[in-house]
Amino acid sequence: MHTRKAYRIAILTLLTVLSFASTAFAQGVGLKNPLNFDTIPLFIAGALKALAMIALPIVTLFLVVSGFYFITAQGNQEKLQKAKLNFFYVIIGALLILGAWIIATLIAGTVSQLTGR
After folding, report:
1. Where are the domains of the chain?
2. Cβ contacts of residue 92 below 8 Å, gap of 6+?
3. Residue closest to 44 by CA, chosen among 94, 117, 108
4. C-alpha to C-alpha distance for 95 and 44, rounded to whole angstroms
5. pLDDT of residue 26
6. 19-23, 63-67, 106-110: least confidently modelled range
7. How many angstroms separate the CA atoms of 70 and 64, rounded?
8. If you count Cβ atoms within 10 Å of the first and of the last residue's Cβ in the chain, which end, N or C, has fewer?
9. What does residue 74 show for φ and ψ, rounded to 5 degrees?
10. What is the model's pLDDT at position 66?
């Protein structure tokens, strides 16, 4: 019973948004792009850049935590193994985030160059 109500609300919301958009279009007002990105690849590159900027302090924090694990291991092989694994995962995560940003930036640049925008 609740799912029907949720579907009705979703459809009503969609129809309301479409109504406002069509009214604005009919009046010649047009819709403005609030994101300042002209293409989808540029948007993806911008979003991944923002993700990288947010993730950089988090990666730094986890590198410090990993260093703390190394210091507190004090020769204990089990704790040392945990510290090595933590450090490995932090580096892999950082490389994945930065690699995704670089690849998206390269794709956005290539698409922009091919389309002339």
Report:
1. 1-32, 34-115
2. none
3. 108
4. 18
5. 66
6. 19-23
7. 10
8. N
9. 50, 45
10. 93
